Amino acid sequence: ADKLLAIANEKDPTLVLNFTKFYIGTYKDGQAFNFMFIRPRKKVTNIDIKLARDGAMDERIKKAELEILPYDERWGTYRLILSEEDMQKNIALIRDLLRLSYQNRAE
């Protein structure tokens, strides 16, 4: 979760983690600002990234060979399962996903 926050802080250093019972979200200026939802597990981290579905982004995720869960139509989130190795190998893709998600949420 800290590594994902570090990536998000590149865009906005005022973001902080918000720990709830079921997920870890983000806070900005004392209010919930959830553009990603983090659910740590023992060996991996599940992350939901709030972003409209896009064919080009689907292709980038498939090419990165990340373990993915089906796109959540109800909440509009890409759902990824990231290991430590996945985070290191695909840092540029994760950075792009978080940047786009943050921009969409900020609008």
Give the strand order of the largest sheet, numbering strands 1, 2, ... along the chain.
4-5-7-6
Largest sheet entry: 4 strands, antiparallel
What's the N-to-C terminus distance?
24 Å
**Dominant shape:** globular
Q: Provide a count of the helices.
A: 4
* Strand tally: 7
What string, H for helix and E for strand, traces the elements in order? Answer: HEEEEEHEEHH
State Rg.
Answer: 13 Å
Poorly predicted spans: none
Task: Please report which band the strand proportion falls in: under 5%, 5-15%, 15-25%, 25-35%, 35-45% or over 45%.
Answer: 25-35%
Describe this structure in words.
With 107 residues, the protein is an alpha+beta fold. Helices cover 38% and strands 32% of the residues. Strands 4-5-7-6 form a four-stranded antiparallel beta sheet. Strands 1-2-3 form a three-stranded antiparallel beta sheet, covered by helices on one side. The chain is globular.
Which features does this protein show?
107 residues; 4-stranded antiparallel sheet; 3-stranded antiparallel sheet; 4 helices; 7 strands; 38% helix
Strand-helix topology:
Blueprint (H helix, E strand, L loop, with lengths): L1 H10 L4 E4 L4 E5 L2 E2 L3 E5 L4 E6 L4 H9 L3 E6 L4 E6 L1 H6 L1 H16 L1
Helix pairs in contact: 1-4
